[in-house]
Specification:
Blueprint (H helix, E strand, L loop, with lengths): L5 H24 L3 H9 L2 H7 L10 H10 L2
Length: about 70
């Protein structure tokens, strides 16, 4: 078995965090999936999360959600 690359792991964890962030937004605000995705993907956190060098993707989705809310 070939081990996963750093980029593959970062992508997997980022995707997981994003799906959880969208779920949190839907639960907290009662908005639909499309609205929640728009809020997450247009947030200031999104740019920071996509930068693999700062390794935000290793943080828990709950922490990232709190961070996203503080960045508004």
């Amino acid at each position: 078995m070939i081990p996963a690359t750093h980029h593959q792991i970062a992508t997997y964890l980022t995707d997981y965090a994003l799906s959880e962030l969208v779920r949190y937004v839907m639960e907290d605000t009662g908005c639909n999936l499309e609205q929640a995705m728009e809020k997450v993907y247009n947030s200031s956190l999104m740019t920071a999360l996509q930068d693999e060098e700062n390794e935000l993707y290793i943080q828990s989705p709950a922490y990232l959600y709190e961070l996203m809310n503080r960045m508004r």
